[in-house]
Amino acid sequence: MASTWTRQHILSLADWTAAEYESLLQTASSFREVLSRRTKKVPALQGQVVTNLFFEPSTRTRSSFELAAKRLSADVLNFAPGSSSLTKGETILDTAKTYLAMGTDIFVIRHQQAGVCHAIADEMDRLQSGVSILNAGDGQHEHPSQALLDLFTLCCLLDDENPRLELLQGKKIAIVGDILHSRVARSNIWSLTAAGADVHLVGPPTLLPQLFAGLANSSHRGQLFLHWKLEPAIQDADFVMTLRLQRERMTNHLLPSLREYHLRYGITRERLKLCQPFVKVLHPGPVNRGVEISSDLMDDPVVSLISQQVTSGVAVRMALLYLIGTLKAEV
Amino acid sequence: MASTWTRQHILSLADWTAAEYESLLQTASSFREVLSRRTKKVPALQGQVVTNLFFEPSTRTRSSFELAAKRLSADVLNFAPGSSSLTKGETILDTAKTYLAMGTDIFVIRHQQAGVCHAIADEMDRLQSGVSILNAGDGQHEHPSQALLDLFTLCCLLDDENPRLELLQGKKIAIVGDILHSRVARSNIWSLTAAGADVHLVGPPTLLPQLFAGLANSSHRGQLFLHWKLEPAIQDADFVMTLRLQRERMTNHLLPSLREYHLRYGITRERLKLCQPFVKVLHPGPVNRGVEISSDLMDDPVVSLISQQVTSGVAVRMALLYLIGTLKAEV
Amino acid sequence: MASTWTRQHILSLADWTAAEYESLLQTASSFREVLSRRTKKVPALQGQVVTNLFFEPSTRTRSSFELAAKRLSADVLNFAPGSSSLTKGETILDTAKTYLAMGTDIFVIRHQQAGVCHAIADEMDRLQSGVSILNAGDGQHEHPSQALLDLFTLCCLLDDENPRLELLQGKKIAIVGDILHSRVARSNIWSLTAAGADVHLVGPPTLLPQLFAGLANSSHRGQLFLHWKLEPAIQDADFVMTLRLQRERMTNHLLPSLREYHLRYGITRERLKLCQPFVKVLHPGPVNRGVEISSDLMDDPVVSLISQQVTSGVAVRMALLYLIGTLKAEV
């Protein structure tokens, strides 16, 4: 399975090749099959240690990685920020080095600052440790596993048996909301345009600066478009991805009110009539019901892919841990 | 083992049948035997995921369920309220649905509000998810696993080899203390009267309103009695169950002082002379020593069943998880 | 492996015999070999329950014990102080007895008060429970597993194949810093002088009272020396162990400032020139970089043993859990 994999750290999707995306999709697909069995475990990472270093609180992402690691039979250590050495003045790099010395094989790291994962990966490489770093969200920078589970969800929807990149070629995908602060949007821009989809970003000007137009990777087949009004962005869209709105943006005067946001950018059944007939809606969660998306739409299993995204998350994270975990074994 | 089990959710004991109690007692008894072996694990729930959603802090109950699940070889996810998506505005139902989508098979749920477990169970059924909900304490409503471990403890005491419901027929059991706020008392009223025991509730009038007289299930053989004075309640009792006194009741003016409570309702060696010669004392824990019960009595292994209750808890929770977990497999 | 082991609790190193140290070193050495394999697990404690009762927050020590227990295939329960029954008024002994009744085989306990581990061990013995207590740090009293991992680290450095006590005979070891408040220093004094090393304590007079001179065990071959100036303490030293400086000491007026502390007692490359040519530096972590030790020195793999200490920690804790865990089986 995917014996050609060579990437050690999963930090960003900016430079992923089409072959890497295909390996990931294939591997996740085979794990999805494992998850449908009665006994959902494989011994692939038995005896290996996966350490979750979550400096920023998170429930769903940490649980998803923890379950993925356990189903690969790895041992899991959870670093709890509240009761940590950090309150005792230790640096983040020293915390990581301590867990390295205990025997960690893979670090899953979330931090409120962009670049922390890169810094830890650099240090681990400098020490020739051989361990892998998996970015589970660093500041406003990237959240690769979220974008990969979105990709997997979409490809499976288009061909359940054989999810692959080309299925998204020429599709129109709108990403709606607070683009500026979203690591989910940044990672999705890379993966979706790599698959050949056209990505239409839309949000209020305070949350979608013009500079995003420059993000596109010119070697990608898909193109990037910016909108400040919702309608042209979702017109004829195949998929609409709404982003979580952080309530604290309001106190920073970047948004007038939740109600006004919903009126202008909220996804409703009425608005989806602009899209393709079989349009589907995605959201990385957790959702503010009635803000990013109307409550009835969120619960409509025909339109909403939210549950599938969460389910895909376990298979995709198993695939990522498997690919980088068995890479180490081969070295 | 108990192949006739059909109940999917454990929310309340109000409508449990005698046959269900007997299945539970038998299954717990066989797991108690497993726990006496050197290797205390069975593979019954291998690959299944038990998710503890504890919205209210708890140590002993969560640990007991966690250990029970691990000994059945399940994978356990713990939802930590402090670092959760709830602080991000997600609804409780959406949190549960997220863990469902990750692959949860059984939810163990504690919440400070009565009815939350029912609401989640209804939603899970509506989604035809097939998962089970186990109420680990919802507000002042019910705490079924606590009442079942009390029942198991008492039946084992009366016949260690063959614990069964009829052993409690005609016994007098006093439940002492803050009945009003106690989910433990409510669940015990159902199970003990179903077993044919007479249950005598006693506490200060502010904590034992008259309306409790109406709680009795008329089809149960055991009867329910209310007392505001301790003596008639424990006179000739076979068992005395004291309830934990929440210190915050005092600030609400429902109680004058801990000292006065102990003087009027505290269980002491002297007072137990009113009871049957071999009377035993139970307490769900954690105990306020010298308040609900005198400290020396609590530590007297001849009188106190407190440790046996905790030990029974693991076997009873293994039995509950096993019964609902293997039910799913057969469906 | 080490079938002559008879000690049930690991509370203090004050009365350890040479034979016990040798058993520990040998057992840890064999587990270090296990940890170098691809599958790093052994089934030694399968079905046993190791409960971490950490009343004081800790990341590294708890994770190290948790990983050690998992690699011996034990089930691990973690007691979280924040969400605990302690806030509900339960005594520490009652908390321990609750976890005993659930089926705990080994308790790993950290508490801010000296003597708590002894008190729990006494109670467990009184109850003839057969369980073991492992002190993971009690107030300013002892931290045996830390001193044993320091010992193992030093002995392995001197003979990687066959780490044994006599290797430290006649070595000079300086322990620098806040001796008064350090449980690490106290435990190390016992183990290092038992090995025949001479231990030179050094720190400011407020943090190193004269009474420490009386700590030495006269039957030990190594001797204890006190210094208030750094230079004579580290002159010709083979090893320098710096202790963590608690920042809260400053607010208590025991220390003028971090900067002044570093100027007088900080370990720097310049100062190490006073020591033996191949001197090594130890620190129990977490480190305040630039306070106890200069930042460049800490990262110098030729001089610093800090990573090896952490790695040794897992093997030494596996050895301790194994020795007391299999003892129980044989009883």
Automatic annotation (TrEMBL), chains A, B, C:
Pfam families: OTCace, OTCace_N. It comes from Aphanothece hegewaldii CCALA 016. Keywords: Pyrimidine biosynthesis, Transferase. Carbamoyl phosphate binds at R60, T61, R110, H143, Q146, G285, P286. This is Aspartate carbamoyltransferase. GO terms for cellular component: cytosol. SUPFAM superfamilies: Aspartate/ornithine carbamoyltransferase. Catalyzes the condensation of carbamoyl phosphate and aspartate to form carbamoyl aspartate and inorganic phosphate, the committed step in the de novo pyrimidine nucleotide biosynthesis pathway.
